[in-house]
Structure formats: structure tokens, C-alpha cells
Amino acid sequence: MMSTDRATLIVRTEHAEVVRRALSPELTENIPRTRVKVAGGAGEVVIEIWADDLAALRAALNSYIRWGNVAEETAKEVEGA
Fold first, then answer.
1. Summary count for the chain: helices (H), strands (E)
2. Helix boundaries (H) for 1-81
3. Which of these, 47, 45, 48, 46, lies nearest to 14 by C-alpha position?
4. Quick one: 52 exposed, middle or buried, by C-beta within 10 A (0-12, 13-18, 19+)?
């Protein structure tokens, strides 16, 4: 794949480990024309996306933002229970 477009999303959250673990199964999904890496450290999730074109980049970025948000909100709910 010839990666020409790239986005890096850095999320700072107290639930970083939960979000990273929640996103890890998604890394095995094949989002067309993209490659994704999820990393980070204490309190931080770093999502890097490389794509062949802007449409693929936008689609992957939207998906990972949505999945990360669901993981974050779920962690907050569990913590508050």
C-alpha cells in the first residue's frame, strides 16, 4: 500500500489503558486502503492512521474516534457504578 495521507490522534484520558485495549481488536479489521497503529503511555492513547487517500483516512479516523469514545464512556460508567 502506498500511504500518502496520515493522521495522528492523541487522546489524554485517565482511562487510556482501557481505551487502548478496547481498540486493539479493531486493529485486525481490514479497513480498506488504510493501516492503523494504536500506542501510548500512562494517560494517553496515540492512534496513527496511514491511508491511500483522504476518503479512506476520514473513514478510518471517524471509526477510531467513535470506537474510542464508546470505550471511554463505558469505562466512565463502570467506574461510576
1. 2, 3
2. 16-23, 54-80
3. 45
4. middle
C-alpha cell at 16: 487510556
Q: Residue 60 corresponds to which amino acid?
A: A
pLDDT, tens only, 7-55: 999 999 999 999 999 998 877 777 789 999 999 999 999 999 999 999 9
Domain 5-70 of CATH type 3.30.310.50? yes
- Residue 63 in contact with residue 55, Cβ under 8 Å? no
Cα 9 from chain centre: 8
Domains of the chain, residue spans: 5-70
